[in-house]
């Protein structure tokens, strides 16, 4: 048989240079790898926004959202389409499948907006805009702008016109949203009684303001030598300039704007406010583009901040309020430390067993070369240094050393028998080469199903699987090339007298353990039924534990950030919401774990939209080392204090690195109802909401269905109005000009465009009774009060109209009570929904993270079966046998039992992280079986021993490397299981599953594998005997 390792053993210089080249390439790649919290799993997501100041949510939904949704429905690859329409604002979020390129999707969205333009309102101030961001995902950075002297309007102008533009130009930034105030504006507060006394209508004022402020081209003069442009003082920009404008005449006297209105410099909307730590502030929310690296993007912003601050007046202060990358950097640093600890522990295990620094150097070098070489492949594949890829490398330290241990241990065994070192290297490597290849390929096969896993978990763990498989593949190559070459030149035969006392003492200890194993194995082989019964019990335990262990999608992270929202009653005014915001911030700021808190209200949209009775909060916690409580603990501690604030309900949630879904909500998980009609939704949405509120297993239950806002319905007599010469359009215009903050003129400057905003005096906006005395200027130049031909009544109306895939929908959001898993919550909610007996036209489903959890839950059994099948195929091909792979696979149930017991004991959930740990256990445990069976088969074929003798001898000879590799894998995962610090909650389930599974399976498989091997061998022998007897007495023989 050709010895593939021979050239590498015989040419040590070439082998050494190859190893150095791998390390060199890996080190260079390591410095170039970008850093992230998790692999990029961003869906191509585009948010479309349209504004029509003063329009009700129903008008926005019917006249803007619906036409846009009709066109968006024709775009290929849209997996989720949601819209939210509030007062004057519509936001449509389109989420595409993972294979869709965001730039191509953006082109399709732009074409759809253009196609819908003819169906949109003619008075829409500007075309709908789109951005390649998911506005339901949290911002990566929050900045605050305060001032010692400037008002918030000027601060907003500075933030919007200069600061946000500079930040938005940086690579990776998707959008900079400025909240907390609005642009400067000239406000015109009309006095309707004065207008009536002068016989002037509101439309006359609007027209005068529009024509008196013009910015049109005027032409030029030109002769043979010069060109002279024409300009004029047709642009006015301040309240002082607008006040003298003539808006009409009365009895031969001109009527100026100041005669019928209060004209002053202010802001575009008075119903908006933002605060940072209780101080008035303008807030900048920075969102990244899909697939942009968050660390690189934030670094670019930080590099630009000094020059931005230099352009800000000295009295204004631009502060970094929230940086989501702080904990990401700490988490990655901590997992790098865990990787280093794992390497040290693995090498320590090797040293304990080999008791020779020179011998320990050989597998140590294999670990270093394999891991460092993996960085080069990660760079070529475009991976990042994130928690998952570094976790893969940490876990792989116990794997990559296995192959080197198997090779070196076999070479050492031959040297101890007196075989010369060089020959032992050649012979020993050849004997175990097939074993090493079988172990490595079967381990890589475990991850084949993950590579085909769809959705968020699949995209998330592609990088993990590729990284670990790469390290294992490199380890296989190094173990068959570099390791035997090092053994040939570093290992020396030891004479009896050369061993020190520690060696002899440890050897006696190992001989004692081996003797105990020999005795117990002999008993197990004599009582095979007992062993098989224990194996059957592990299968039963798997089923029972799978029903008991808590299930989730992703561990709850402590990112040092809390996001939240607050909501007043549906008829709450802006003034009431402003007071609530200050009260809420006051409570939060008193918590000892809180460093900064920012918030805003005013229904300006915010991240993902927001009704006029809502607001948003961003809380930065102190570093984890400076607080003794997790982010979730802070939320639980603040909840009763915030509940005591009567005017608003506050909902907080610990920010997570992984966000799923296209609709912003006040809690981490969502349950969605859709219906054909709003009436059906209005009945069953509240029913489900109130039912969920009564469930003790969930907290912070809130709904986006707000259909009880107050509205004044104007019911006018069309015939009477017609006799006055009044049309519905005149009525709508009169109402809009007085109560809608109408933008009647535009002020153009070199920096930005500003508006002249007109409405009635704020005193008149406090009571609906004002409507009766509102005048409509008829076509005959007479003013008629609305009370002359109409009546008013108070009714309810929605504050927000939400759609999901064209249909009216409502989303109920919730958080989990302490100690409750997502799996338990989804089961209970589903049972509750069935008890309500909703009609068939009400479609219910979990959304966002909860929906991703259900999808992953349904695919987990298929993934496990796929992994088992892949291993069976690989082993069947390698062994040319249908039976031996089954023998190896019988070791696997014990691994998952141990993992689930450990998860239950340590109060962890069976989520995608711990599931990966179980996949890894499949690879580790079957390695032990491969070591036993491969040596047993060799003994049968080459030495002619019986099956019983062969498997017994294989167990004895392979006991040391099995013990070494298992301990190496367990100690390699131990830093993950016991880790603390940033990101430890993400790593801990993986370590717990691996360590727990290894402890349990190691004890059991040392006995079940040889027993099952003998059972299958006896079955094979009986089958062969029957097969050979059948031709002798069968019809064919007789004929």
TrEMBL record:
GO terms for molecular function: xenobiotic transmembrane transporter activity. Keywords: Cell inner membrane, Cell membrane, Membrane, Transmembrane, Transmembrane helix, Transport. The lineage of its organism: Bacteria, Pseudomonadati, Pseudomonadota, Betaproteobacteria, Burkholderiales. It is found in: Cell inner membrane. It comes from Paraburkholderia bryophila. GO terms for cellular component: plasma membrane. The keyword Cell membrane applies. This is Multidrug efflux pump. It is a multi-pass membrane protein. The chain crosses the membrane at residues 12-30, 337-354, 361-382, 432-452, 464-491, 531-549, 862-879, 912-937, 957-978, 990-1016. PANTHER family: MULTIDRUG RESISTANCE PROTEIN MDTC, PTHR32063. The keyword Nucleotide-binding does not apply. It comes from the Bacteria.
